[in-house]
User: Fold these one by one.
Assistant:
Number 1:
Amino acid sequence: MQPGRFNRLLLGLVALTLAALAWNEFGMNSVLAITAAQPYSIWTDDDRREAGGRTVAHVDRVGSTFVMTCDAKPGYEYPYCELAIALRAMPDGIDLTGYRFLRVWIRHEGPAMQQSVRLYLCNFTPSYSKLGDQQSLKVHEVAFDPGRAGEPVDIDIAKFSVASWWISEHNVPMDHVGTELDKVSVLRVGTGNNAPVGLHKITVDRIEFHGKLVSKATFRLAVLMAWMLGIISFVTLDAAATRRRLKAAEQGQLSLRRINAALQLKTRDYAEQAGRDPLTSLLNRRGLGDDLLKRSKEGEARLFPMSLVFVDLDHFKNINDTHGHAAGDAVLRKVAQTVGLQIQRSDLLTRWGGEEFLLLCPLTRAHEAQAIAERLRRVIESIDWEALALHVTASFGVAEAMNAADLSAGIDRADAAVYVAKRSGRNRVEVHGTKAADDGAQASVE
Ligand SMILES: Nc1nc2c(ncn2[C@@H]2O[C@H](COP(=O)(O)OP(=O)(O)OP(=O)(O)O)[C@@H](O)[C@H]2O)c(=O)[nH]1
């Protein structure tokens, strides 16, 4: 990824993260409100049944308010009244662990100046609780002063602790005395113990549990996980993209190398083609020049003295005229192939032009070349032309060049010798420097 785009993406993600954290801090609130307008089932408890006292509690729904009257009477040592609200049936209850505090609108009017209120959260705890038995629920309590004006009071949920009387009644071991608020079935509002004798009235307008839809810790963990996941995905995707780019580059280089190789091959082909005769595949004059140049780099001593042998087919025009141009071509190919098979690897056979071939024999003296030419003459003469029913012969002119500077003149001398051979009746070998050849050459000049 380009650095500019990466930076913009990173900045965007940081901004998004900050916005999400702020939303979690200041918003994302979850509120559970409890009022008498809701169809919770309710009842009251007082000291008559459990403690044999004479206190009488009674509750009414007045609009969205619970109104509990409590006639606290002497009898039981600690007279009390309680309003019980069934939040959800046992054993599920309501999970209150995500809530941080309660906001309550409760008033307590009674015989004393300051009337405290107790709140109880009763949790279904499988080790102690039995289905249907209210008394077996684990009781968490908090006491607070609601004030007189009926303003809301906030109570931190951490202030709730397991009631000491519940711990002693159930003989609870130390590791079970901690709060458990994951299955709260019943919420109670009471006078607390030791309510002064007289008429009490507890009005519950509203109770709210406040928390976060997602707790801060969970949310931060989720943000952290999202970042880690993002980083891992980014690194993985980036590595894959880099691998893809590398592969593409490698493939590009490979095809470039292939194209280059093919082009070089072609260049070589063209160069070779330019130096070869397409009909016989022998070197042409240009090819001969290149080849000699290459060989001369190893030193003239590896080439000279060199014999030059002209091979000129006899009456070739007649073959063309009688049998057609294609037959003429076939004859040229066959002669080239036959002579090619007869000579040494170090010899150079070229198509000089038309029906004329020039054979160069390095490190060969004229008398040796004469013998070679004679052999070639006989071979050509005895080629079996099968269906063509031809009798093809060639005339040979041999000359010797002593060094590179003499090469061109040597070729001329061989040419002159072949001319002599033609004049002397064809199908024969003439060597420049012999009397016949020299006389013939003289005559051709005249
Ligand atoms: N089929 C064919 N004919 C060619 C080719 N190159 C040259 N020729 C023919 O070769 C013939 C050469 O004729 P001439 O120069 O009169 O020589 P010749 O008929 O062999 O007579 P001598 O050399 O005097 O024996 C010409 O008719 C050319 O057209 C070729 O590549 N293919």
Number 2:
Amino acid sequence: MLFHVRMNVNLPPEMPAAEATALKTKEKEIAQGLQSSGKWRHLWRIAGQYANISIFDVESVDELHTAISTLPLFPYMQIEVMPLCRHPSSVRGDDS
Ligand SMILES: O=C(O)C[C@H]1C=CC(=O)O1
């Protein structure tokens, strides 16, 4: 199942820099692990914003929720999820 996910990150300005750096380091490690596994298919920065557009390829909504809600930055993100299905005019033979 494919999901388009937008994540807007809002770290509190009063958060100590070391804490923010530790969260981002852990987030990167987990995000790269999910990308290596194929679950986090695309990760794109939205230009000019501390936000990303991602494509997740997971087995279920529950798996998506677990992946997103266990990210270290989850408490500081506003997240929008859009489920995707094939477009009848798509020329792609698969879901890539
Ligand atoms: O920077 C972000 O967009 C937030 C989050 C998503 C992946 C990651 O490493 O951090």
Number 3:
Amino acid sequence: MTSPTCYVGISELFSGTGRAGTTRTEAVQRIANAAILVRGEQIEHVGPESEVRAACPADTRFVDMQGKTAIPGFVDPHIHLVWGGDRSGEFNRRLHGAGYVEIAAEGGGIKSTVRQTRAASADALATKARKTLDTMLLHGITTIEAKSGYGLDRATELKQLDVMDQLSAAHPIEMIQTFMGAHEVPPEYAGRPGDYIDMLNQELLPEVKERGTVTYVDIFCEKNVFELEDSRKHLQAALDHGFKIRLHADELFPLGGAGLAAELGAVSADHLVHASKEHQRAMAASGTIATLLPGTSFFLRAAYADAASFQEAGCTIALSTDYNPGSSHTISQALMMALGCMKMGMTFEQAFLAVTLNAAAAIEKADTHGTLEPGKQADIVFLDTPGAMHLVYYWGVNHVSDVVKAGRRVVTDRRLITT
Ligand SMILES: N=CN[C@@H](CCC(=O)O)C(=O)O
Ligand SMILES: [Zn+2]
């Protein structure tokens, strides 16, 4: 058996507690002068340093973290990882006054990335996505949900999934895969979203299921994209094929996607800027996580979801960057916490749980991920700060200095360890 490692000299350990998503912000613990004992891939003990040292076996290797803060690795439960090209020109057009919907209607937006993703080789897509994963790891993200959805045809959707398989096997970041063939209506099916959904249901869902690597099916349930009936049809077909489901819901218009998510028992409904109170309550009753995406609101200069309203309705709230080339080109979960606190009325504790334990719940990993507790996977981020509060208090700065993923050190002193 491998010798355990004990991380000592931790000025503050800050973590949620428990094995399920929570609305209880008291579910955070703060331990001053802490230590963490790790054996193999798991945490064996956390607590005050003197207590943990007393529990360490004789062959323990001690690593002095020199006053850093320890938190669980960030989980990001909504990532558009694999895509080609660049939309900075479109972004500049928006700064000059063009609207996101206006650009999309002209064939830009998601469709522009689809063209560039179709044209790119799998190798080029993998190289670009690997760099993104490296940047995420350096910012403390240790687990993500990653979607296809910039192909919108069989070959390119499968190419995206192939790239995800390749990166999943090679990169320390743990990846849960989602098929999002229904991200937009492709040009070949313009004006015929129902026919496209039929094709996805009959041809692609069985083939994707066969791969065995994809957990979820997601859809952009939105006015003039996939409206409620097409969304219901696709999601029901996904459930029938044995997938779990998640939705982009009520982002730009109050269509009722949040209600559909609750009705069908979706694991998560995301965006939710325009979700009605009735649908928020329905989501709470169905246990559907509310994954809020403040980076998108920021980047589109749009309204923010009302976190207090979801909290009051009893929803478990997660936060995600929604990393993508058009509406939220960022990988910083710390920045999402800052936006959650400053723009959505969240407390620090709520925002912290939303990027750790509740984000893990949004990908059904809360029993093993998202907190620093005995028996959980040893996904640990060390911050070069006197406490976790600096994630928001000293905002816009990457404070991550060291990362341990599944018990293995993968970032040391802000540098990736490549093995
Ligand atoms: N809402 C739809 N999809 C993305 C936007 C993708 C894009 O603009 O490329 C989102 O999650 O925000
Ligand atoms: Zn998205």
Number 4:
Amino acid sequence: MKVAVVGGGSWGTALSVHCARAGHEVVLWAREPEVVEGVNRERRNPLFLPEVTLPPGLTAEGDVAQAVSAAEVVFFVVPVQFARGVLREMKAALPVQAVLVSASKGIEVASLSRMDEVVAQELGLEPERFVALSGPTFAREVAAGLPAAAVLAGRSPSSLRMLQEAFSTPSFRLYRSADVVGVELAGALKNVIAIAGGMATGLGLGHNALAALLTRGLHEIARLGVRLGGQPETFRGLAGMGDLVLTCTGALSRNRAVGERLGRGEPLEQVLSGREVAEGVPTARAAAALARKNQVEMPITFAVEAILDQRLSPREAVTALMTRSLKEELE
Ligand SMILES: NC(=O)C1=CN([C@@H]2O[C@H](COP(=O)(O)OP(=O)(O)OC[C@H]3O[C@@H](n4cnc5c(N)ncnc54)[C@H](O)[C@@H]3O)[C@@H](O)[C@H]2O)C=CC1
Ligand SMILES: O=C(CO)COP(=O)(O)O
């Protein structure tokens, strides 16, 4: 198939590698001219996953409209806060039959929208042409061809089956789901809990605290997710528990790393000064706003928001969380 991958960061690069290895013809759009040049001339992305040698069947393009103009499938992998602008630039060139697979994980702060909503607002695609891809998939490991599983969520069973068959390989196993809302929210909200998980590690709170945080984190993710229309089972699946375990415990998580450095006492500006994105930072604010709007209790998310707003120190947040009023576990 003709595939466009929009977004030349780590995940876009890894997905391009995966798609090319699966036998598809891939055009990767990257914003940085040096990435386009490096991919086309040296078969590597100099800024993101520079250690990976890119397979044949993959070229880079600096004009997003040009990149998507012949695509049957577009993987959209732009960080959520920048997504709207890129969607506008590619709108006119997107072929009418193309399916858009969003692989970004976050909630837009300005509008409190999920990616399916941002895409619908900007492109006016029929719902059948939108699919979300989520799950425990560190880019570096997927690019290395290590085994991974993820979920495709969409409203058209035939599109889901087509994508599942075209993009599953012996090292990348795709499942189908009809729960777009749940899969999108699970992938976005776990990034906030991963920041909290990293903080617990940075503060040296031990394994018990991390396990408690992860479990209670999943509980509050599901509480908001179900309130907004997600299916409860989705939060126990690959996009929910699977990705939460990965990012709260895996050394490759950028969100976890942000939390760990804050927990160790590094200043926020220094922690956020790198080139890579930690989607949990803006999404903490969006998730907390959505929770307040829908009167959903999300104590860990509220604590992460307060720490990022510098209203609370990580240590104070631990005390606040541990001394809340006592509850039923399943409340
Ligand atoms: N890296 C990973 O292992 C995974 C990442 N994701 C998701 O994929 C999405 C993209 O993340 P990564 O590829 O990891 O990014 P990255 O952190 O590797 O790279 C940053 C990306 O942001 C882009 N960017 C920066 N400023 C921009 C702007 N003003 N306008 C447009 N683009 C801009 C850069 O061009 C680059 O592509 C995120 O939503 C992330 O949560 C999902 C699964 C795995
Ligand atoms: O979503 C991810 C893996 O599934 C990547 O997590 P980070 O953005 O925290 O690195």
